[in-house]
Amino acid sequence: MSTPALQGINGWLVVDKPSGPTSAKIVSVAKQIPDVRKAGHAGTLDPLATGVLPIAFGEATKTIRHVMEGLKQYEFTINWGEERSTDDSEGIVIASTESRPTQQEIESALLTFIGITYQIPPIYSALKVNGQRAYRLARCGQTPELKPREILIRRFSLIAIPNRDSAFFKLQCGKGTYVRALARDLSHHLGTFGYVSSLRRTQTGPFHEKQSISLEKLQRLRHSSCVLKYLLPLRTALADIPALSIDGQSADRLRRGQAVHVSGADSGTAVILVSGQPIALASLDSGWVRPKRVFNL
Fold this sequence. Notes:
- The chain has about 300 residues and is an alpha+beta fold.
- The protein contains eight helices and 19 strands.
- The strands form four sheets. Strands 1, 2, 3, 4, 7, 10, 11, 12, 13 and 14 form a ten-stranded mixed sheet that branches.
- The longest helix is centred in the middle third of the chain and has 11 residues.
- The protein is globular.
- The N and C termini lie close together (about 10 Å).
């Protein structure tokens, strides 16, 4: 069996991203942890934004897609009266108005955004248009045409109105939702303009801010094994998926990509365990277990 040093680090680290650095920059710092062979994050945060940035190491990178499919929670502030090119405070003012919504108007408007709706992403986004990043086209003075995308808003709540020029919200949404675009669309619905002046992600799938380590602490500990006490196991990313335990012989077949038959296995998706250790993410059908992703732990 491989030793941890030879195998590399496998698991998740939740970083509390500060405002300023890019998500890629945070990952580059995390890659300086000893024995990291591979790393990637589960969902980009804008440089302005703060909060939960889950980073996967080693075999845990195979679960990134599943985490990104999960719900996300945000807290953010909208400043009323101005529309900005980037839909946040980093952009230039392109329109303004003296119109300000009332609390009753805001709370009534939020109901129209709950559920499955469609959203046109901000032109300053990393989506590709004819092979080019939209934000690069926008910076060159072009207006990239982005198609509406289906999004899910599970909860959208007004928390506070500090003054007539701003309001504070909490949001729970599905993948692909741009909070900046939501602020833009809500503002237009209310007959005004608005942009995101602060944005914090408090949860991504099973990862939440209480599990996080600050960037400052990560930078201080990145060359030390002490940082490993903040490492979460690979299985954390799959907490919402049922588990199925199998024997060692069946596990060997699964590791080779072969299907195995397990009596009583339900249909669906399951995390396959051997002695409590996850070895695969598999699909179940009529008792047959077929590996989708194998973990080399």
